Amino acid sequence: MADPFIWDAALLRRYDTHGPRYTSYPTALSFGSDFTEPDYQAALARSNADGRPLSIYVHIPFCRKACHYCGCHKVATKTTKVAEPYISRLDREMVLIKPHVDTRREVAQLHWGGGTPTFLSLDQMSDLIDRLDARFGLSNARDRDYAIEIDPREADVFTLRHLQALGFNRLSLGVQDLDPRVQRAINRVQPRILTEALIDEADRLGFRSLNLDLIYGLPLQTRDSFAATLEQVIAMAPARLSIFNYAHMPERFAAQRHINAGDLPAPEEKLAMLRITIAMLTEAGYVHIGMDHFARASDSLAIAQREGTLQRNFQGYSSHAQCDLIGLGVSAISCIDDVYSQNHVTLAAYEQALDASHLPTARGIRLSFDDRVRRHAIERLMCDMELDFDELSETFGIDAPRYLTDALARLEMPQRDGLVVWDGPRLIATPLGRLLIRHLAMAFDARLPRQPDSQHSRIV
User: Which residues form the Radical SAM core domain (predicted)?
Assistant: First the structure.
């Protein structure tokens, strides 16, 4: 099995610092509590003038059992009754948002995340879809992108049939690892047959795209054990794979304190897992979209990247560009017009705001001109793996190389190390530079401390 490019482990280790994942710029760490409900309402109203399609994210925070690796905003409970008042409050949030939104705009994208959205009963899923349709008008368009995250332990073939009837056409299955020893160490025992049964049924039902989530760097993993997981996953033939680098930050995420740090693989072993992942998936015909995403060449993500329309949002890479994102639920983040707005991250505060007939806006930010220039540069670099300075100059009416002198100065060392090359006005990440694309993006970040701390995960 040949490597798809020359591997330099020493160089990767040298650049393996802490840094943002850039699902937004500015990142959530720059959001401020001085951003209030009226600011969000004003942004919603402004966005109507452009008439962009809508993307709606719904956060379902509940799961029956907490996985030890998890860093999400979640509520672990076995009582499904807690979902009823939550759905009612989601509807209340929609009611408060609706007067500020032109609902003739198409809802081109819908994503349910969590937690575990399949924590909901089938009737509760139907209820929530009905409420979303009543408030915003959901789309029947063939090219809509309606996705839901699924825990294979919480779903069966009847769940998939129901989701298809509700209008979902894309599924994301959490797998993480197929090794039983690793599963026990992360408190997520999930027999392979559960995943295989759902994949087979999704294929039979004709779901347009299916994604599997894996994580490397988990306790008790080795390069050989992870290669065995990859071999089994490749045989399942999903259209997309998200293969995340586990970030062990027990000081931030209480669930991770159950993980024995001594069981975590050494940095060299993690690098070996990354190398094996890229080699095996490339050989199997997958395109490395960037960072932790892989897709078949025929998948909409790979097509969007080839056409230059790929974008990045809080769910990762997305093929639906130019949507305004409305986030519903506890901790959800919206990206509307030129603002980011985040809801309260605790269930109690979220409920209290809605019960008082207020949107649950906790913090956010309105972007300056400089923020918008740098956001565009970071997003295009992370999506296209290159940045066209002529296009950037034309888009914003600036001399981009002069305007971004600070960023270009910070890229001099990566250029000498062979992570980027110039082709006329285009700055292009090399194959090795693609693995360090977060580090390259950091050069354009005017808000990042020059020595990012452990608030961020490691890059590799």
Answer: 48-284
| Percentages (nearest 5) of helix, strand, coil residues in the chain | 45, 20, 35
- Give me 238's structure tokens: 């999903």
151 lies in which domain range? 29-328
- Over its length of 460 residues, how does the chain's per-residue pLDDT go in tens digits? 556 678 888 899 899 888 899 999 999 999 999 999 999 999 999 999 989 999 999 999 999 888 989 877 778 888 888 999 999 999 999 999 999 999 999 999 999 999 899 999 999 999 999 999 999 999 999 989 999 999 999 999 999 999 999 999 999 999 999 999 999 999 999 999 999 999 999 999 999 889 999 999 999 999 999 999 999 999 999 999 999 999 898 888 888 999 999 999 999 999 999 999 999 999 999 999 988 899 999 999 999 999 999 998 888 888 876 899 999 999 999 999 899 999 999 999 999 999 999 999 999 999 999 999 999 999 999 999 999 999 999 999 999 999 999 999 999 999 999 999 999 999 999 999 999 999 999 999 999 876 656 677 788 7
CATH of the domain at 170: 3.80.30.20
| Other beta carbons within 10 Å of 6 | 9
341 is a domain residue:
no
Q: Which two structure tokens, joined as six digits, stand for 424?
A: 């006329």
Q: Provide the CATH number for the domain around residue 419.
A: 1.10.10.920
Q: Is residue 354 part of a domain?
A: no
As a dihedral over the C-alpha atoms of residue 145, residue 148, residue 149, residue 154, rounded to 10 degrees, the angle is -150
What is the total count of domains within the chain? 2
Q: Can you give the pTM of this predicted structure? A: 0.94
Same domain, 285 and 406: no
Q: Which two tokens stand for residue 291?
A: 């960072």
